[in-house]
Design a protein that fits this description.
The complex is a heterotrimer of chains A (125), B (89) and C (163). By secondary structure, chain A is mainly α. Chain A has helices spanning 2-29, 33-36, 38-62, 69-96, 121-124. Chain A is elongated. Chain B has a single domain, classed as Helix Hairpins, CATH 1.10.287. Chain B has helices at 2-26, 30-55, 60-84. Chain C has two domains: 2-48, no CATH class; 58-161, 2-Layer Sandwich (Alpha-Beta Plaits). Chain C is built from six helices and three strands, in the order ααααβαββα. Chain C is elongated. Classes of the chains: A mainly alpha (125), B mainly alpha (89), C mainly alpha (163). Chains A and B meet through helix 1, helix 3 and helix 4 of A and helix 1, helix 2 and helix 3 of B.
C-alpha cells in the first residue's frame, strides 16, 4: 500500500517537473515573442498544479494531516496567470506590431490598442 | 522513491530557472524580459513548495503565497510602466 | 432585511471558505471568524458594486469548470509535444479573430481567461467596443476550426451561465 502511495506522489512530482521544464524550454526555443507567450501557461497549469497536488497527497497520506492550503495557491495562479499574459501580449503588440499586420475585428471598431472605445452613456452621467 | 522524484523535480525547475535567466539576458524585447521574470516567479513558487515537501513542514506555503502575490503585482506594474509610462495614473 | 444583511451571498461563502483555507484548520472559532468576515466585507463593499452579473445554474458552472480542466490537461500534452519535437520552421502560428456574442464584461473576462489558460491559444486583446477578441494560436492548420471550437465549446456555455 505504501509503495502505491509513494508511486502516486512520485508520478505527480515527475510529471510536474517535466512540464515545468518544457515550459521554460519553450521560452528559449520558440522564435518570436508572441509564440513564447504560450510556453509559461504550461508551467503554471500542470507544472505548479502537479507539485501542489503532490504536496497535498504527501501531507494527507504520509504525514496524516489534512492540508487544503494548496488549493488557494492554485486558485490564485489560475486567476492571475491570464491577466499577466494578456498584459504582456498588449505590451508587445503596442511596441512591435502595426494595425495592418493583424486581421480585422469584424465589427465597427478597431482593436483596443489602436482605437479609442466608444463613449458609453453611463460614463457621462 | 519520493526522495528521487523530489530531486528530479528540483533539477527540472532549477534548470528552468537557468533557461529563464538566459531569456532575460538575451531577450530582444522588454516584453520577453517581463515574460521571463513572470515564469521565474512561477518556477520559484514550485521550488518553494518542493522544499516544503522535502522538509516536511507546511510553513513554506505562506512564503509561496506571498511570492505569488508579489510576482503578479510586479508583472502588472512592469507591463503598465512599459505600456503607459506610468504605474498609477 | 435578508437582502441587506447578505447583499452578495456568493461572495460571503467564498470569503468564509478562503479564510478557512488560509488558516488551514477547520475549528469553530475559525468558522465564526470567517463567517464574520463573510458578512461584513460584502456589507461594506456592496455600494461599490452597483451593476452585478447574474450567475445562473450551479450545475452548469461545475460542468464548465470540469470541461475547462480536462481541456487544460489535453492541450498541455499537445503543446508540450509541439514545443519539444516540432522544428521552428514547421510551426504555423495564426492570428484569429473571434466575434463575440457575449456582452457582459464578466463573461468576456471569463472567456478570455479560459482561452489563455488552455495552452495553445492566448487571448491578446479585445476590439475597442468589446465586439470581438483577438486570439493567437501557436500551431494549427485550420484557423476557422479553432474559432468554431472556441465559440461552440466555451462561449455557448458561458452564454447559458451569464444570461
Amino acid at each position: 500500500m505504501t509503495v502505491a502511495i509513494e508511486a502516486l506522489i512520485s508520478f505527480f512530482l515527475v510529471v510536474a517537473g517535466l512540464f515545468g521544464l518544457v515550459g521554460s524550454f519553450g521560452l528559449i526555443k520558440l522564435e518570436n515573442t508572441i509564440q513564447r507567450l504560450h510556453a509559461p501557461t504550461k508551467a503554471t497549469t500542470v507544472g505548479v498544479g502537479g507539485v501542489l497536488i503532490a504536496s497535498m497527497l504527501y501531507f494527507l497520506l504520509v504525514k496524516g494531516s489534512v492540508s487544503f492550503h494548496e488549493l488557494l495557491i492554485t486558485l490564485f495562479l489560475f486567476l492571475t496567470a491570464p491577466i499577466s499574459a494578456n498584459f504582456i501580449a498588449k505590451t508587445y503588440i503596442q511596441g512591435n506590431i502595426r494595425a495592418h499586420e493583424l486581421p480585422g475585428t469584424e465589427c465597427d471598431y478597431g482593436w483596443s490598442v489602436y482605437d479609442d472605445p466608444p463613449k458609453r452613456i453611463e460614463d457621462e452621467e | 522513491m519520493i526522495e528521487a522524484a523530489l530531486i528530479f523535480a528540483f533539477g527540472c525547475f532549477g534548470l528552468g530557472l537557468l533557461f529563464n535567466l538566459w531569456r532575460i539576458a538575451t531577450g530582444p524585447d522588454s516584453a520577453d524580459r517581463i515574460l521571463a521574470l513572470d515564469t521565474m516567479v512561477i518556477n520559484i513558487i514550485a521550488l518553494l513548495i518542493l522544499y516544503g515537501i522535502k522538509q516536511g513542514t507546511t510553513i513554506y506555503y505562506e512564503a509561496s503565497m506571498l511570492v505569488a502575490m508579489v510576482g503578479f503585482v510586479s508583472t502588472v506594474a512592469y507591463c503598465r510602466f512599459v505600456l503607459r509610462g506610468d504605474i498609477i495614473e | 432585511m435578508l437582502k441587506r444583511l447578505f447583499p452578495h451571498p456568493v461572495l460571503s461563502i467564498v470569503l468564509t471558505l478562503v479564510w478557512l483555507a488560509l488558516v488551514n484548520k477547520v475549528t469553530v472559532g475559525n468558522l465564526i471568524l470567517g463567517g464574520v468576515l463573510g458578512v461584513f466585507v460584502p456589507m461594506f463593499t456592496g455600494p461599490y458594486w452597483p451593476r452585478r452579473a447574474k450567475v445562473g445554474g450551479p450545475f452548469r458552472v461545475i460542468e464548465y469548470l470540469l470541461i475547462v480542466l480536462w481541456d487544460i490537461l489535453v492541450a498541455n500534452v499537445e503543446v508540450a509535444l509541439i514545443v519539444m519535437f516540432k522544428r521552428n520552421e514547421n510551426i504555423r502560428s495564426h492570428w484569429i479573430t473571434v466575434p463575440l456574442e457575449l456582452t457582459s464584461p464578466e463573461a468576456i473576462t471569463v472567456l478570455a481567461g479560459t482561452i489563455t489558460m488552455t495552452p495553445g491559444t492566448v487571448s491578446t486583446m479585445l476590439a475597442a467596443d468589446g465586439g470581438s477578441i483577438l486570439v493567437h494560436c501557436l500551431h494549427t492548420d485550420d484557423p476557422d476550426e479553432v474559432r468554431d471550437t472556441i465559440k461552440s465549446r466555451y462561449e455557448w456555455r458561458l452564454k447559458e451561465i451569464f444570461q
